[in-house]
Amino acid sequence: MENGVNMKCRAGWLLSLILAVLLGAMTWKFIIAGQTVRADDGRTVVLLTADERNKVLGEMRGLLETVQGIAQAAADGDLAAAERLARASGMAAAKGEAAIIRKLPLDFKTLGLGTHQAFDDLADFIAGTDDPLAVVGELGNLMGNCTGCHASYRFGIEGARKPE
């Protein structure tokens, strides 16, 4: 009887170990690593479908348009418009489709959400200042997220022979 219980206990521990390893591997793949390969230029290529890639790049273009709008509004002395633009690209604008999010590496997701939060922080800063030059300085700090992302990542199409 004791041998049978020992065997069941060992089998249970082995099954638990196998499940833990599988859970760890899935966590690594779907939360931390994403669907990526290394590019020749040292950046990480995030592999998406063509439609997913277009959606992500479209969101990035929208952020760039916001940066341009804030810079122009600050130059014009229209800090109310700059604040509205910044707020519109804050966390309220952070959205994503589950299929895309699963493919993004954790560092990319963290940087993306940090960028949306930085727009909210910028809007708060603008609300508390009357100095357009200070707004431009804070905007420059925020753009460090943009340049950091573009220096680290690019997008490729799933199934392509070589990452684009």
Give a written overview of the molecule.
With 164 residues, this protein is mainly α. The chain has two domains: 1-33; 36-157, Up-down Bundle (Four Helix Bundle (Hemerythrin (Met), subunit A)). The protein has helices at 2-33, 50-75, 79-88, 98-103, 106-127, 132-152, and strands at residues 36-38, 44-48, 153-157. It has a three-stranded mixed beta sheet with strand order 1-2-3. Strand 1 (36-38) and strand 2 form a beta hairpin. The N and C termini lie far apart (62 Å). The relative contact order is 0.15.
Write the element-wise H/E pattern from the N-terminal end onward: HEEHHHHHE
Described by the principal axes of the CA atoms, the overall outline is elongated
Number of strands: 3
The helicity comes to over 70%
What's the architecture of the largest domain in CATH terms? Up-down Bundle
Q: What count of structural domains?
A: 2
The CATH topology of the largest domain is given as Four Helix Bundle (Hemerythrin (Met), subunit A)
Structural class: mainly alpha
Rg calculated over all Cα atoms: 22 Å
The order of strands across the largest sheet is 1-2-3
CATH class descriptor name of the largest domain: Mainly Alpha
Distance between the termini: 62 Å
